[in-house]
Specification:
Helix content: 10-25%
CATH superfamily of the largest domain: Immunoglobulins
CATH class of the largest domain: Mainly Beta
Number of strands: 21
CATH architecture of the largest domain: Sandwich
Number of helices: 4
Oligomer: single chain
Order of helices and strands: HEHEHEEEEEEEEEEEEEEEEEEEH
Radius of gyration: 24 Å
Number of domains: 3
Structural class: alpha+beta
């Protein structure tokens, strides 16, 4: 595929994403939270990555040859088909399976592993989680043989100031430390671990997020059935007013059913927020529905403002006395904007917008 084709498809994809996901008052499907996307951890002295410069392209300057048109059509068709499949379910209530690891474990830290200098073994660095809320401690574990000395240097990413420097407790299996939470830990933390392994120095750099409290999920207030939705009203204790997004996973016993998301503007103090599960992700009957894996997020409201996270006092909320037979079993009906977005994508796939 030549360079012009790549540019056309990239421009098309950017236009489609902008059109479909323009911000509005409708809650969009939950963004997948992966540590890779957040640059969770990096190994120091890794090979440099080559970043291609961004290219600005004027549409009128692109020669839409038949081959290029066909390639652009295919890209639009794939995106249209994926979006059509997404609209089978409500954006606030997406199906969940055991394979959706990013949603089942949104705060999991992916361990870093590097080889020793003689390539005979490896050293791994792990944290107990990726995102912390003050005053949670950070538990750091360095696994590997022949570690004779190790220390960690904590700082804020892209800043030179060192917040903390401490030695790890060394054992036959490696080294470890538990760092007490501090108010100075705020934002993207860099944890630089320097160790002696069989006489050779090894440095591993991890990243994590450390947040000051913004809001706390207290628990469930009540549940009710409204048409095709099971509505769960949650109680929140908000310290910092703003626009909040709350995510949770709905289970039937041990089986994951749905990833739920709600967005609302909340004032400070005791507030309420409603999660909804559409009938399309619910069984006909169940006596063991429960909410788990809560993520409380204070969204950025102005350019340059950093997204912050809150916490949950509860790890699990059983949904008692829920009668699913009261649900209307009507399929989800896309909103006007969702239907317009799909028509736009289908039009591009059929060349209507490419001529």
């Amino acid at each position: 595929m030549n360079k012009k084709v790549v540019i056309v498809i990239s421009a098309l994809a950017a236009l489609i994403i902008w059109y479909v996901f323009m911000p509005d008052d409708t809650v969009q499907p939950a963004l997948v939270q992966t540590q890779k996307a957040n640059k969770q951890a990096v190994v120091e002295k890794a090979p440099d990555e080559t970043i291609e410069p961004e290219t600005e392209v004027a549409a009128s300057a692109v020669d839409m040859s038949p081959f290029q048109l066909t390639s652009t059509q295919k890209a639009a068709k794939v995106i249209a088909n994926n979006y059509r499949e997404t609209l089978r379910y409500a954006p606030y209530s997406q199906p969940l399976t055991v394979n959706d690891v990013d949603r089942l474990e949104p705060n999991r830290f992916i361990p870093l592993t590097v080889p020793t200098s003689d390539m005979s073994s490896t050293i791994s660095l792990s944290l107990n989680k990726y995102r912390f809320i003050y005053p949670e401690p950070i538990k750091l574990v360095l696994k590997g043989e022949a570690v004779t000395r190790a220390k960690v240097i904590v700082s804020i990413v892209d800043e030179q100031k060192i917040l903390l420097e401490k030695s790890l407790a060394v054992s036959e299996a490696g080294a470890m430390i538990e760092l007490a939470g501090k108010e100075g830990f705020s934002g993207d933390l860099q944890l630089k671990v320097m160790a002696d392994v069989a006489g050779d120095p090894i440095t591993i750099v991890a990243q994590a997020k450390y947040e000051q409290p913004s809001a706390k999920l207290i628990g469930l207030k009540h549940t009710e059935v409204n048409g095709s939705d099971l509505i769960m009203t949650l109680s929140m204790d908000v310290e910092d007013a703003g626009i909040y997004r709350v995510r949770a996973n709905l289970y039937d016993g041990a089986e994951p059913l749905a990833h739920l998301v709600a967005k609302s503007k909340l004032s400070s103090g005791r507030q309420e927020l409603q999660l909804k599960a559409h009938q399309s992700v619910l069984p006909d009957k169940s006596s063991d529905l429960r909410l788990m894996t809560f993520v409380v997020e204070r969204m950025s409201s102005v350019p340059g403002e950093r997204t912050r996270f809150g916490e949950s006092e509860v790890t699990e909320i059983p949904l008692i006395d829920v009668d699913l037979s009261e649900l209307s079993r009507d399929p989800y009906s896309p909103t006007t904007k969702e239907r317009a977005s799909l028509e736009f994508l289908e039009g591009m796939a059929s060349q209507k917008n490419l001529q």
